[in-house]
Amino acid sequence: MANAGNTEDSKGSQEPQDSHESRKSTENSRANKRPGPMEVLRQARGQLAELTGMEAESVSSFEQTEEGWALEVEVLELERVPDTMSLMASYQVELDPDGQLTGYRRVRRYERGRADARRSGGQ
């Protein structure tokens, strides 16, 4: 009977070890795997909001670059009544290949209800 107890103990101690190895393997594969476009978008919006205090309303441009990712994000800078007079801004956001924000800058401001002539004019 003592033998049966030892066999059970060795099986019991091996299960957590196997489980631990499996978890470790999963963590390593996650660390080596780059985030996909949707995850990068989510990370960019969240990181920009945290840094600026302004929520992203939309992403108007998104591309993968040699350095990582480049986005243009539209945010509400100043809410006005009526809403069409609210001030919006476009931010150029750069992220590394892992989706971590490396820089951002405001590239333009505009009223929500106005078309941007320089963009729609093909320039």
End-to-end C-alpha gap: 85 Å
> Low-confidence parts lasting 5 or more residues at pLDDT below 50?
none
- Structural class of the secondary elements? alpha+beta
Oligomer: single chain
Reconstruct the topology from this structure.
Layout: H1 2-32, H2 37-52, E1 56-64, E2 69-78, E3 87-95, E4 101-111, H3 117-120
Antiparallel strand pairs: 1-2, 2-3, 3-4
How would you portray this structure in words?
It holds the Pfam family GvpO. Residues 1-48 are annotated as: Disordered. By secondary structure, the protein is of the alpha+beta class. 41% of the residues lie in helices and 32% in strands. It is built from three helices and four strands, in the order ααββββα. The chain has helices at 2-32, 37-52, 117-120, and strands at 56-64, 69-78, 87-95, 101-111. Strands 1-2-3-4 form a four-stranded antiparallel sheet. A hairpin with a 5-residue loop joins strand 3 (87-95) and strand 4 (101-111). The longest helix is centred in the first third of the chain and has 31 residues, at 2-32. The chain starts with a helix and ends with a helix. 11% of the residues are buried. The mean pLDDT is 81.
Relevant terms:
alpha+beta; 123 residues; 3 helices; single chain
Characterize this entry briefly.
This protein has 123 residues and is an alpha+beta fold.
